[in-house]
Write a structure and sequence with these properties.
By secondary structure, this protein is α+β, with helices and mostly antiparallel strands. It is built from three helices and three strands. The protein has one domain. It has a three-stranded antiparallel beta sheet.
Length: 82
């Protein structure tokens, strides 16, 4: 078994669950990883009074998940010669 076979041909981030999924023809969709880091991310979006802008923090966490999924997808395509 190769890593590319396990991950599949398509990788995406689901912003509702916070999971990155891979998809294979044989097994369909499967969760590969969960995007975490909320403890750190929320602290990036505090105002001068220490209030957290949770909407901005959540959007940033989604961007991190999308970045990771896109990076995996790009590597898979590069290695598979697509």
């Amino acid at each position: 078994m190769q890593i590319n076979d396990f991950i599949g041909k398509k990788v995406w981030y689901d912003n509702h669950s916070g999971f990155v999924f891979g998809e294979t023809e044989e097994h369909g969709s499967q969760m590969l990883l969960e995007v975490r880091g909320w403890g750190s991310i929320q602290n990036l979006f505090k105002d001068d009074k220490g209030n957290i802008d949770e909407k901005k923090a959540a959007l940033f966490q989604d961007k991190v998940g999308e970045f990771i999924a896109a990076a995996i997808q790009e590597k898979m395509e590069r290695e598979n010669g697509r």
